[in-house]
Amino acid sequence: MSYIQFDNVIRRYSHNIAVDQISFGIERGEVFGLLGPNGAGKSTTIKMLAGLLKPNSGEIFIDGISVIKNPIEAKKKLGLVPQDIAIYTNLSAIENVTFFGSLYGLKGSELKEKVQEALSFTGLTEKAKEKPKKFSGGMKRRLNIACALVHNPEIIIMDEPTVGIDPQSRNHILNSIMELNNRGTTVIYTSHYMEEVEAICNRIGIIDEGRLIALGSKQQLKQKASTKEKILVEAHDYNDRALRNIKELPGVIHVDSKEGLIEIIAEEPQERLQDIIFMLVKDEGKLKNISIKEINLENVFLELTGRNLRD
Ligand SMILES: Nc1ncnc2c1ncn2[C@@H]1O[C@H](COP(=O)(O)OP(=O)(O)OP(=O)(O)O)[C@@H](O)[C@H]1O
């Protein structure tokens, strides 16, 4: 059994199946990413792990402890940063972190020390006495993280922590995840941002419509695609007919075009370049650049499901 183990877990909301019989394990010390589009079942999975929702069937274990039978013991091991920020806007930052620390049973000088550590870790020491009412979205999120890690949990779960925040806070959060992991914390990170998951996670589960459709390191996941590379064309003035002609070229699997950038997934991409350039130029297209790049997890998702990760 893995350090964290999901066994045949099912969760419904009335007739809608949100998590459909998933089984997987997470090892101690991993940064594990749960990647999937909106509504895929990420939050439901995370809430069940954190003991906030009960599965309809199946079992979840943390370090051999059943989250369902022994939720209080299991919960001691983890800190949750929920998708919806959960802090008290009328309390100062330090009062918020102190409150959460005391909920986890910290007291006296240990509580004070851990609160200072959590505020410093999230870059909020100078804002400690201010009320989060005036904080930016990113600062509120960082305070939420401080509240979740004040008791030094073995596992930290972050549910889409970078949605709708400024780039500075986003980088701060991503760096702090790496630092937490260097200290030995197991991190579970959900996101629909493929770039973030690729950048920070050792292992990734791809979830779609409640099912875990792929699991592995990013290199293992990329092996699931039928081609390892894609063609990127920067062009302007091309028309839909040129795109249709490219789609019909032999070996071409998928063509996507957005704001002057055409992405083409094709078998043996080097062999397709001449024909692609020909089709574009023939139909008035002006070519700026053409290159071959390694595919990413977005491309893997598209090939597995026929849909884009972000529509
Ligand atoms: N409280 C609820 N009541 C009814 N249906 C729900 C509830 N919460 C989630 N769902 C449904 O369950 C499915 C999975 O939702 P979930 O929030 O777990 O997905 P998600 O991958 O976290 O998506 P998002 O990124 O949008 O939060 C969706 O179809 C959603 O509409």
UniProtKB/TrEMBL annotation:
<keyword id="KW-0812">Transmembrane</keyword>
<keyword id="KW-0472">Membrane</keyword>
<protein>
    <submittedName>
        <fullName>ABC transporter ATP-binding protein</fullName>
    </submittedName>
</protein>
<keyword id="KW-0547">Nucleotide-binding</keyword>
<keyword id="KW-1133">Transmembrane helix</keyword>
<keyword id="KW-0067">ATP-binding</keyword>
<dbReference type="GO" id="GO:0016020">
    <property type="term" value="C:membrane"/>
</dbReference>
<feature type="domain" description="ABC transporter">
    <location>
        <begin position="4"/>
        <end position="234"/>
    </location>
</feature>
<dbReference type="Pfam" id="PF00005">
    <property type="entry name" value="ABC_tran"/>
</dbReference>
<dbReference type="GO" id="GO:0005524">
    <property type="term" value="F:ATP binding"/>
</dbReference>
<keyword id="KW-0813">Transport</keyword>
<dbReference type="InterPro" id="IPR017871">
    <property type="entry name" value="ABC_transporter-like_CS"/>
</dbReference>
<dbReference type="GO" id="GO:0016887">
    <property type="term" value="F:ATP hydrolysis activity"/>
</dbReference>
<dbReference type="InterPro" id="IPR003593">
    <property type="entry name" value="AAA+_ATPase"/>
</dbReference>
<dbReference type="InterPro" id="IPR027417">
    <property type="entry name" value="P-loop_NTPase"/>
</dbReference>
<dbReference type="InterPro" id="IPR003439">
    <property type="entry name" value="ABC_transporter-like_ATP-bd"/>
</dbReference>
